[in-house]
Amino acid sequence: MSFLLNPNGQTKFKRTGYHIAKGKSRTMKYFLYFIWLFLTAFMPKQKPLRVIFFGDSITEAGAKPGGYIMRISDALKAKGLSGKYDLIGAGIGGNKVYDLYLRMDDDVLAKNPDIVFIWIGVNDVWHKTLTGTGTDADKFEKFYTAIIQKLKARSTRIILCTPAAIGEKTDCTNQQDGDLNKYAGVIRNLSYRYHCELVDFRKIFQQYSLQNNPENKESGVLTMDRVHLNERGNQLAADKMLEQLLK
Prior knowledge:
By secondary structure, the chain is an alpha/beta fold.
């Protein structure tokens, strides 16, 4: 901008081409900014990923205060990721693999999950001795396979979990060790066959007990009663599941 003196001695300002161009540039920036505000106001917000934890009483307890699902939720908040995930517990005490299959339409598929953790198998083994109503290994594999196939048909991300423990002794003298290892092996094979992710709690819990159970205790290390998780067990489960979830 320049200025001139007219014959009356008054100052007269004159806009130069530079200042005119600069003004137009500023106007364009404001225009683009308001366009961006308008578009973002009406753009649909990204929905959080829906994560369902599908299992038995261990998972049912996991959705309660102090449980592993709640601990995962707290960890996501601490990482600033709580808005990206919607965590849903779908555990029912006493369930075996065929119970999961029979209720998966209502409790899982109807909720349109993006990710499903499947943690089942303890009762299929434990109830053989406890009540005589366990699940034979071949039937266990067939029902588990059917669950995976239903989820695969919807392109769901599937994370399988092996059963962790029925007794925490480290010298292989827990009554159901043999069967539990066998059923964990079935799940590992299904993970490989159907390209599912795996959290191998059987190995994780065994390794932890070897390092932290020098007295060879039957319970009290990661479980309250040989099966259901105590505080340390819930934290370990939360840590390993969160690690897999964020991969």
